[in-house]
Amino acid sequence: MSNVARSFRTWAVALMVAISLAGCAVIPTHGPVGKSESVPGNSSPVNIDFRQSAPTKGASPTSIIEGFIAAGTGVADDFQVARQYLTLGTATSWRADQRTLVYDGALDITKAGESDDGDLYTVSLDVTSTVDADGIRTPTGANTTQAVSFALIMVDGEWRISSAPDGIMLQVANFAALYSSYSLYFYDPAFTYAVPDVRWFSGKAATTATSLVRAVLHGPAPYLRGAVASAFPDGMQLSRDSVPVNSGVAQVDLTPDLLLGASVQARQQMQAQLMLTLRNLNTVTSVTLRADTRSVDMGGQSQGPPSAVVNNLVPDRQIAIRSGDLVRFEGGQATPIDGVPSMAKYGATAPAMSWTKNEYAFLNADHSQLLTVAAGRAEQLAASAPNLTAPSFSPFDWIWTAAGDRSGDVLVVKPDPGPSGALEPPVVLRVQWLIGRTVTSLRVSRDGSRVLVVSEQNGSSTVHVAGILRTDGVAKGLTDPIVIPATTNPSVAVWLDGTAVAAARSGSGSVPVEVLDLRADPVQLTALDDVQGLSAGNGPTQIFAQTGQGLYARQGNGWVLADKDITAAAFAG
C-alpha cells in the first residue's frame, strides 16, 4: 500500500473515531504563561473499551503470537492479558512501553527454526510508523517491512512466548484510537519563545501526566537538541515515578539536590515549562514543584522572568508585489510603503518583511540576488546564489534563504548595515543532508528555533523540519531533520502555527493545497489552478494562495479572490 493510501486510511479512521465519540476533552486555548495556543486533535487518550482474548487451550504457536499482538490494545490495565501469552519470566521482564510499531495489513508469521530458547518464529509487518519510549513518532518510507522475532516453548502442555521484543504492535486503526498527540515545550536559547515538541502517548490522563513530565525531563527530540533549551538541568529526574493530579494541581517531586541548587528564576522557568506542557490535559490548572517531598521557594510573581511567547502571532498585514512595487496588503487593500521606492527595475519578486522593524527583502527576477531595503534607505545586495528560495525573516530579524543548486548552502543575512553603511557578508551554512537536493522553499519558524524546508531529488519532494544551531546568536548549522509526510509532492510550504504548515505544488494545472501537521495526517483543501506560492497568517483558516489570476484567500472549504493585481505576498517571517 502506498504512503498516500496509508495516510488517508489513517486519517479516515481517526476522523470516524472522533465523530463517534462524545465528550472528548479539549485542550485549553489559553493558559497562565505566554500567549494562547489553539491545538486541534485529542487532548487526552480516547476512552474506548478494547477487550483482549486470553490464550485458548491447545492454541498453536501462530495463534499464540497473533493473540499476543492483538492484546497490545490493553493499555488500560498494563497489558495483563498480553502477559498471559508469555512465560512467567518473560511476562515479568517484558516492557510494553519501550516501543510501538504501527502497521497496516495482515501479519505474516513463519517458523524460522529452533534454538535453546525454543522454537523461533518471525513476524513480518508492513510498518507505517514507530513510536519510541519518549513518545517520538517516526513515519517510515513506502513499503517498509519489518521483521520481529519470537521464541516459544511448551509450558504445562501449552505454547507460551519465551522471548519477545519489548514494546507492542498496533494496527493503524487501533493506534488512532489509543494514542493522542501532545506538545511538550522547551525554550529558544534566549528563553523568549516556547518551542513545541510533539509526542505521542497512550493511557489514562493520570498516567499521561507522568509520561509528559518524564519526557520533558529526558530533553527534546533529537532534531531539536542543541537548537532549544530546557529549564531542567541534565540529570533531573522524578524522585517518585508518578505525577498525581488533585483538584487541578499537578504535584511534581524532583531530584532534591538539583532543584534546591537551582535559582528561584530557574525554578519558575521549570514550573512554567511544565505548565505549558501539562495544559495539554484539561485536568491540570497549576503545577507544584517539590524537592522530593519538601516545598521549595518559588518566589513571587514580581521576581519571575518574562513569560515565554507561545505560538508567536504574525501581524495581520502582508508584504506584496504590485506592478514591480513593494506594497502593504491589509484588509483587502494594497497601499504603497512610504519611503520605499519602486523595485521594478529588479523585477522584484518573493518579498518578505521583518517582525519588529520596517525591514524588507526580495529577490530579483531570476532569483539570483537577495536584496534588502527599508524606508529612507536605498536597497542593498545582501546575497547572491543560483535559484534562491523566497527570503524568510526570523523573529530575531536575520534573513534566511537557500541556494537551489544542490550545493546544500543556506545563506543567513543580517539586514542592518554596519558602521560603513554596507551589509556584512552572509553566513553560509553547508547543510550536509541537503547536498544533492534542490531546495525549493525554506521558512524560519515563528519561534526562531526551526526551519521548514522543501527539497527535491529525482522528481520527488520531501518536507523537512530541522533545528537551528547557534553560537552567540549567530546561526552555525542545522540539525538532522524530521520529515512531515505529504501526499502532493509539494514545492512550497509555509508555517501556520507552531506545528502545522500549508504546502502545495507550484506550477500549471489544478493542485490541492495541503495542511500538514506534526500531530495529524495530511488534509487536502480544495484545488486551485496555477498555484505559484503560499502565505499564511495565524492558523489554517488564514491561508493565501498566489495564482496566475491573482491572490486567493481561503474561505470555508473553498477560495475567494482577494486581489487580482498582486503577484506575490507574505506575512512577517
Structural write-up:
This protein is 14% helix and 40% strand. The chain folds into 3 domains: 3-178, no CATH class; 180-303, no CATH class; 318-570, TolB, C-terminal domain (Neuraminidase), CATH 2.120.10.30. Mean pLDDT is 89; it is low at 1-46. Strands 1, 2, 3, 4, 5 and 6 form a 6-stranded mixed β-sheet that branches. Strands 24, 25, 26, 27 and 28 form a 5-stranded antiparallel β-sheet that branches. The chain has a 4-stranded mixed β-sheet with strand order 9-10-11-12. Helix 1 crosses helix 5. With 573 residues, it is mainly beta. The protein is built from 8 helices and 37 strands.
Question: What is shown here, in short?
Answer:
The protein has 573 residues and is mainly β. 14% of the residues lie in helices and 40% in strands. The protein is built from eight helices and 37 strands.
Look up the CATH topology of the largest domain.
Neuraminidase
CATH class of the largest domain: Mainly Beta
- Count up the domains: 3
Estimate the global geometry from the Cα principal axes. Answer: globular
Q: Gap between N and C termini, in Å?
A: 38 Å
- Strand fraction equals 35-45%
Q: What's the total count of β strands? A: 37
